[in-house]
C-alpha cells in the first residue's frame, strides 16, 4: 500500500525536476503540442503544475532532463 504512494511521489519529484531543467519556452511548446488549454498566462511553476496533474500524467514522459553545465 505504502509502496504505491512512495513510487508515485518519486515519479512526481523526478518528473518535476526534469521539467524544471527546461526553459518556459520549451515547456509551453510541449504543452501546446498536447492541446492543453489555460496555460498562457502561467509562470514556469504554474505550467509545471498543469503538466503534473493526474489527467495529464504520461503526456510528458518523453521529455528528458536538460544537462546544465557551469564552468
Task: Please give the largest β-sheet.
Answer: none
Radius of gyration (Å): 13 Å
Task: Please bin the fraction of helical residues.
Answer: 40-55%
Low-confidence sequence ranges: none
Average pLDDT, rounded to a whole number, is 85
End-to-end distance: 44 Å
Briefly note the structural class of the backbone: mainly alpha
Strand content: under 5%
SSE arrangement, N to C: HHH
Oligomeric state, counting identical vs distinct chains? single chain
Judging from the principal axes of the Cα atoms, what is the shape?
globular
- DSSP E strands, number: 0
How many distinct helices?
Answer: 3
Task: Explain briefly what this protein structure is.
The chain has helices at 2-20, 24-33, 44-52.
Give an overview of the whole structure:
With about 70 residues, the chain is an all-alpha fold. Helix content is about 55%, strand content about 0%. The protein contains three helices and no strands. Helix 1 (about 1-20) packs antiparallel against helix 3 and helix 2 (about 25-35) runs parallel beside helix 3. The longest helix is centred in the N-terminal third of the chain and has 19 residues, at about 1-20. The model has no long low-confidence stretch (mean pLDDT about 85).
Give a quick set of tags describing it.
71 residues; 54% helix; mainly alpha
